[in-house]
């Protein structure tokens, strides 16, 4: 573990207002006062609903063998349950390096390097899913071609995970198989879209015959950026677009989702490039670069392309595996407060643009990566005692928006990078999350016509953007047993017919006003 320095604390704010329209007015600012930011919400025009299972998690397939998945063996099930009702995905790169062994006494093949999934693992996962009320997407091995084994694993999953099994996914990122040796992912068949679809059909037919009724979704293609406005569009055009088009053409009629992966950056140093080359390519971002408007704009463009293809095909777009920096993140950046603020902005963008679910990828055995929670050492892992990273509190805050209908929102930030998302909840509450991704304080004004009464505010607090510890939400930290109990909220009186809250540098205001 690295030693963390103590840093000055800043505040990230999540602003939640209820059904009463809000209007805030800002007083004239002095030259050295925080910059003025105005958020205008049209509460009269609710749009699409953010699904209740919008916030999901993605894990490597070999982790299905871990004992910490068992409810009651530690705090993992409680940490997951705090996030509401989401989706657990077990697949990723290791699905193609993990063997299905229906008889645990059978030795695993040499290519699996000891990694296996057994029927008992599926039972443990099914118990966890039922305990937390989450669905499961399970990957099956494609790189070591064996439709019969995949079908048998799907049958066992149907029996042992039961109704919590939402889908089976065939392989992981087949559009990058030809890069497997370069990326350290092992040998892969160099698929093109048509040849992948032919093999995927063989898997689908075998699964349909052996495990009837089990849904198969895909294509779970890779999408990533290097931070380059010249290179990134070429990756999307050559390695994403044709694959999605082929998948829709071959399997769209029998699918519910269009699953895509995306990372705006890749830690290119971890694929063998020198530090200087990686930095030149943009693959080693700082916290500031992660939080930049340019990064947000690139992400938005990618997401809009996915949503457009899915919508035209009548499918639900999902970011089935995603996070900030591929190849296990970047220490001090992806596990920092800046990474958490990126998470808030990214999840809000995905929800606003029409994505129906986001599975944030986890490396729980690497606390310096980008996981929401992780095991700091072997003893913690054996005991199932995970600790939350800053990203956990970001997901915890955004999960409060799930189930709400999105409201038209505009942000006047004077050119500063401040984002916002507003929703109307089923009980009439209006929640407005404002994310300040700048290193300067902001005086945030949220305008929703007809505000009155005293509101309550809860805040997500941390240090500087580089801080990797000290983050809390709603005045509280997660307890050792994984439970989360918010502190008493801050009372915010109406001023000039609305509510006004400051947002410290690198922050986000949850203002809850009483309903009529």
From TrEMBL:
<protein>
    <recommendedName>
        <fullName>Beta-glucuronidase C-terminal domain-containing protein</fullName>
    </recommendedName>
</protein>
<dbReference type="InterPro" id="IPR013780">
    <property type="entry name" value="Glyco_hydro_b"/>
</dbReference>
<dbReference type="InterPro" id="IPR017853">
    <property type="entry name" value="GH"/>
</dbReference>
<keyword id="KW-0732">Signal</keyword>
<dbReference type="InterPro" id="IPR052974">
    <property type="entry name" value="GH79_Enzymes"/>
</dbReference>
<feature type="signal peptide">
    <location>
        <begin position="1"/>
        <end position="26"/>
    </location>
</feature>
